[in-house]
Amino acid sequence: MAADMAATGRTQGRRWRTGLGKSVGAVLVAGALAGLVPADAAAQGAESRTTAPTGAASRTTDADGAGAMRRIDAFVRDRLDATGTPGAALAVIEGGRFVHQRGFGEDGRGRAVTPDTPFLWGSVSKPVTGLAVMQLVEAGRVNLDEPVRTYLPRFRLADPDMSDRITVRHLLTNTSGIPASASGEIGDRYDNAPGALADSVRDLARIAPTAPPGESYAYSSAGYAVLGALVEEVSGRPFGTYLHEKILDPLGMDHVVATEQDFERERVTPGHRSFFGVPVRFDAPYDTAGVPFGHVGGSLRDLTRFVRAELDGGRLDGRRVLSAKGTADTQRGHVAGSVGRYGLGWSVGTLKGTGERMVWKDGALPGHHAMVIMLPDSDRAVIVLQNAYHQLRAQEFGDAAFGAARMLSGASPRTTPTDPLALVLPWTTAGLAAVLLFCLGPGPAPPAPTTRGGPRPLPAQDRADHHRVARHHADPRGAPVVAALDHGRHAGHGTAVDPRRGTEPGDRRRARPAARRGACGPCRLGPTTPADRAISTGNPRSTIAERGFSHVY
């Protein structure tokens, strides 16, 4: 019985998605594919291709004073306004301590953002995972150049021979041959059942590698999921528990998020996604299966403590989590990346306009963006956390941190022009979808359920659900709506969600419907009637991930 319940929990966590329908979904996917670039790569592009310097050069005698911080604040505020980001937090570190911190705007519940406001960090989780692996290396329990299957025998790709040759180092440096598209197999599961991470790694068995191990670079969140599972196997602890015991708690990161319990305790606020240029709240559950590559989070103060430890060779306030040599190894560029070089979880390059060595990482989840830029040679760093994200404007989101880092070093900030596609594509896609819907016309009405005495009326709760959905769809403001009806009452999709408000209170942890492929078109969430499919609308989490792309970078 316990095993059956665990299996059910894992199944229910597979996907948290709904869709318009196959035809409209195809149009939306086709439109969105034009902008699919991992956030990390997009930010690297922003750093190498930024244009149009703004403002006069900032080389002044008060570069370390309040005047410089006011200018940095003003620049970041301007960037937030440009991208329509409702809220953000900024920290500046110098000489091993933070010298400036600032909150901007509001969180997803309308409260002022402060240094204690929790965010999700996206791929800034990867350096945390890299540190965890290096701890096991220094403890003699893992060898970077041993095959992964030495420690994680269940790891396998579609090509068994290549699977046997992939080493721990290959995974850390994104040179394993696992394609970037494999992230779609493990991303956006929202699976918090026991063994969720191990299950996601098992599902990689159907992924074919695109290159022999060690031959080429391909940014891979899937590879970091495997590393998380390896840490679990070697340490005998759930990955989030290991992080708390060995890294997060020793560093005094008191409000960090690495488990579902942390997520609920810290009451992580919803992020925002762009809907026709307007930020719309997006409230998703936590994803335990995604912690190694994207779902670590916490406040600005928490991330500041982690970065201070990185700048000081793996220690903070007398507590050491990694040797200075091991820390330096994670921050060294081991392989050529898409732009610059890649270390063991960190990107490595040069800050444009200053020539300084830069160790950095950015990450994005639907509704959240985070960036850390360290300048180790001058013992400085900049952190920017934002509660919004737009894939087609990824470079603009990176401008806030890159510009602040340049200003901190006495250079002029730069900005990225808005990609016209980001402005035109939503309207074009909506127009094509409207034309397609008009051409297809309404589907046949389902036969009404009958009894001997004639049509059988709907139960009271079903009538309430139908009225609720109809009322949402008739909303003249035209906000996107997910009509997700409870499986037990009406063969639909879990919970009713209005993106203007997020998930109904208390629903985030339970919004983990079963993913039965092929049962309900793009959403794959169980049997529905034609009428259910007709009233189901687009998922704020695009069906792109179901086509082999991940939202987590």
Count of DSSP H/I helices: 18
Number of strands: 20
What order do the strands of the largest sheet run in, or round the barrel if closed?
3-2-15-14-13-12-11-10
The end-to-end span amounts to 37 Å
Silhouette: globular
Strand content: 5-15%
Give the biggest beta sheet: 8 strands, antiparallel
What gyration radius follows from the Cα positions, in whole Å? 24 Å
Estimated helix fraction: 25-40%
Poorly predicted parts: 1-63, 458-553
The helix/strand class is: alpha+beta
Mean pLDDT: 75
InterPro entries: Beta-lactam-related (IPR001466), Beta-lactam/transpept-like (IPR012338), Diverse_Enzym_Activities (IPR050789)
Domain Beta-lactamase-related: 72-391
Protein name: Beta-lactamase-related domain-containing protein
Biased composition (Low complexity): 516-527
In short:
The chain has about 550 residues and is α+β, with helices and mostly antiparallel strands.
Can you walk through the features of this model?
This is Beta-lactamase-related domain-containing protein. Residues 516-527 have a biased composition (Low complexity). It is a single chain. The chain has 553 residues and is an alpha+beta fold. Helices cover 35% and strands 14% of the residues. An 8-stranded antiparallel beta sheet has the order 3-2-15-14-13-12-11-10, sandwiched between helices. A hairpin with a 2-residue loop joins strand 5 (271-275) and strand 6. The model is unreliable at 1-63 and 458-553 (pLDDT under 50).
